[in-house]
Specification:
The chain has 17 helices and 22 strands. The chain has 714 residues and is an alpha+beta fold. Among the domains are: 2-55 and 305-335, no CATH class; 363-462, PAS domain (Beta-Lactamase, 2-Layer Sandwich), CATH 3.30.450.20; 468-542, Helix Hairpins (Orthogonal Bundle); 550-699, Heat Shock Protein 90 (2-Layer Sandwich), CATH 3.30.565.
Length: 714
């Protein structure tokens, strides 16, 4: 039994060993097949990833260079528009454009057109001559300017022009007038080898297809015709991959996308899968442009073929034996990779969503999202802090302190943007939002059909401070102009007037007061004195005396004003009441300038009243809008009031609503300047037919009220 047991055990071992060996061989072959498949896929994926990364970096670099070129070209065109802007009834001499051409080596020809397309100014580089192509250059300049005027300030590019031995393009940009509308356009002929050079090289490469879109999605002349047609009409896209790529492009994304071989054949890139690398070109003031470069992967075929030949021999037997098992493993591997990729994409999407919310929350403007039904579905932190209700809500609930007329206007703006699929804006409008009236810029941005819960964005930006700064700059420019004008008047007019007056008095003295012509000479002398007083006022205005501040009692200034203005008020038949109490704290002021300020304000109030009117000068302790303690002086009248369209300019130099010869328009300007020199604030409110109130917030002389001293203002 022992000898028979050994063969049985050996047979058992062999029987058992065969399946084990076969299993080991099966596993070995499976490992070889799986390893070969994984290696092929990994190398293929690495090649594609490296290829996509290189193309993406190349497109990003070209997009950045294009952005710099576009921003630089826009700066040059705006500068050309500024130096040729009409001033004093005429255009600046073309010498300014000549200097600009010399300073910008890429410029060859600059031409300025008016709103009707007529040439206003033209200048060419000294070394440039279009020769036989002059008519073609003129046509492209005029056509580009017309397109820029019709498209509201968008930078326009022409197709390349062959001028001599150089390749050139025409750039055009409209110039906004004082009312914000295009008042003309500037067109320039630019050397393409100096500007957008890398973009031109890409467009000229037969192995690449380039799509360069303007800020409104219009293709530039450098774009591939088929891609340009699809960009204009996405519904005509020959493949869903290309349609999705254009959607990502319009959403401002950057990255890469793959196009099938059929799409590559349609683009003339051969029978191979194509890679599309795209990037936004975010310019400064010209909107967001977009760049797409489509490249065939046929250059990778040789490398992939070599890899397959090296691995084909080793994997052939394994593929034949374990085809089904290998297919299953590949399928499982692909599912695992797909699940992993989905997880990565989900994490990236969540991170992107969180980053977007943080970005919107840190934007100083109010941003809210509206659904197709007009419901506010999302809002950034600026708006959430001012809301009282919960989202979602209506636009009126999101802006609870705004009048219904303002809410209706904003809703109409959103509907107009959604209907036209074009951003609609209100620039610097005076609106009552968030409980107070201010100047706001409002932009309604349509988001397109795919976003049902986010149909449009409404961006509300408070530009009150910007407009206030602009007004201050404009007023400073006027002050500088007045200074120059006053100095010239004093020298050129004051001296001759003095001579004429002296001669007039001399002749009057010779003739005597009883002479028939004596009255006429007296009129001459009086009118010369009037002109001289006006010149002195302008000189006093342009040479503001530094304030020699000291503690000053308002009651004493009021007593002086009462004595000065008593007879003037009686002559005008206006009841004047001055209520400056002795208990008022002292203010930090130059007494002479404080007297001049209050005198100007009271005289203006008297001028606004008819016979029987009332003017009141009062003062009380208060707190300024900036939070510091002060004495508030108020001049109140029940006169005719100020028209709404005139209230913004009442403090501007030479602005007056009085009849000709009755005022110089410097009274309120001098008053405002005195207040600013003392660190105070001045406000004016008026209603037509009810009167005007001027409030002056004047800083105190110290942290505690001071008892009035017995001193007379100078």
């Amino acid at each position: 039994m022992g000898s028979e047991a050994q063969p049985f055990e050996a047979e058992t071992l062999v029987t058992r060993g065969i399946p084990i060996a076969l299993g080991a061989l099966f596993l070995l072959l499976a490992a070889i097949v799986v390893g070969a498949s994984r290696l092929i896929e990994r190398d293929h994926a690495l090649l594609l990833e490296r290829f996509a990364g290189e193309r993406a970096r190349q497109v990003q670099q070209i997009a950045e260079l294009s952005r710099l070129d576009l921003d630089g070209m826009a700066v040059v065109l705006r500068l050309a528009g500024d130096v040729t802007r009409p001033r004093d009834g005429g255009l600046v001499a073309p010498a300014a454009l000549d200097a600009l051409l010399v300073a910008s080596p890429q410029l060859r020809l600059v031409r300025v057109f008016d709103a009707a397309g007529r040439t206003q100014v033209s200048a060419a580089h000294p070394a440039f001559s279009a020769g036989a192509q002059q008519s073609a250059v003129d046509g492209e300049l005029r056509l580009a300017a017309a397109r820029s005027l019709s498209r509201g300030g968008e930078l326009e590019l022409s197709a390349p022009l062959a001028v001599g031995d150089r390749s050139m393009r025409v750039y055009a940009l409209s110039v906004a007038g004082a009312d914000g509308r295009p008042s003309g356009a500037v067109a320039a002929l630019v050397d393409s080898e100096r500007l957008l050079a890398r973009l031109g090289v890409l467009a000229a490469d037969p192995a690449l297809r380039v799509l360069f879109l303007g800020p409104r999605g219009r293709p530039t002349p450098s774009s591939d015709p088929l891609l340009a047609a699809v960009a204009l009409e996405p519904a005509r896209a020959p493949s869903p991959e290309l349609a999705r790529l254009l959607e990502r492009l319009k959403a401002g994304e950057q990255g890469t996308g793959w196009l099938p071989a059929t799409q590559a054949v349609a683009l003339g890139l051969g029978e191979a899968e194509a890679l599309a690398a795209f990037s936004p070109v975010r310019t400064d003031g010209l909107g967001t442009w977009s760049l797409v470069v489509v490249t065939s992967t046929s250059v990778l075929s040789a490398a992939e073929g070599s890899l397959k030949r090296r691995l084909g021999g080793a994997a052939a037997a394994a593929v034949l034996v374990l085809l089904a098992f290998g297919g299953l493993m590949v399928a499982l591997a692909r599912k695992s990779a797909l699940a992993h990729e989905r997880g990565v994409h989900a994490a990236r999407l969540a991170q992107l969503h969180q980053r977007t919310e943080r970005t919107l929350d840190n934007i100083p403007a109010a941003v809210l999202t509206l659904s197709r039904r007009g419901q506010v579905t999302a809002a950034n932190r600026v708006l959430r802090e001012r809301m009282t209700g919960q989202l979602p809500c209506t636009l009126a609930e999101a802006l609870p302190n705004s009048p219904s007329a303002v809410v209706t206007r904003l809703s109409a703006l959103v509907e107009q943007a959604a209907h036209s699929q074009v951003v609609q804006s209100l620039h610097g409008e005076r609106l009552a939002l968030f409980g107070s009236e201010g100047q706001y810029s409002v932009h309604a941005v349509p988001l397109g059909e795919p976003f049902h819960e986010a149909h449009a964005l409404l961006v509300i930006e408070d530009v009150s401070e910007v407009h206030a700064l602009e007004s201050q700059l404009l007023r400073a420019e006027k002050l500088a102009t007045i200074g120059v004008l006053a100095a010239g008047l004093a020298h050129e007019i004051g001296t001759p007037l003095g001579i004429v007056r002296a001669r007039g008095e001399y002749v009057l003295g010779k003739l005597g007061r009883d002479h028939p012509q004596a009255h006429g000479l007296e009129v001459i002398v009086d009118q010369i004195d009037r002109v001289s007083r006006t010149i002195r006022r302008m000189l006093d205005f342009s040479r503001v005396t530094p304030a020699a501040v000291r503690p000053t009692a308002p009651a004493q200034v009021g007593a002086w004003l009462g004595e000065v203005l008593r007879y003037e008020a009686q002559r005008r038949k206006v009841e004047l009441r001055i209520a400056l109490a002795e208990t008022l704290p002292r203010v930090s002021a130059d007494p002479d300038q404080l007297q001049q300020l209050l005198l100007n304000l009271v005289m203006n109030a008297c001028d606004a009243c008819d016979a029987g009117g009332h003017v009141t000068l009062s003062a009380s302790r208060d707190t300024a809008t900036s939070g510091w303690p002060c004495v508030r002086f108020e001049v109140l009248d029940d006169g005719c009031g100020i028209q709404p369209e005139h209230r913004q300019g009442v403090f501007d130099p030479f602005f007056t609503t009085k009849k000709r010869g009755q005022g110089t328009g410097l009274g309120l300007t001098v008053a405002a300047q005195i207040v600013r020199n003392h660190g105070g604030e001045i406000e004016l409110t008026s209603e037509v037919g009810e009167g005007t109130r001027v409030s002056v917030y004047w800083p105190l002389a110290g942290p505690t009220p001071l008892e009035p001293r017995d001193e007379q203002p100078s």
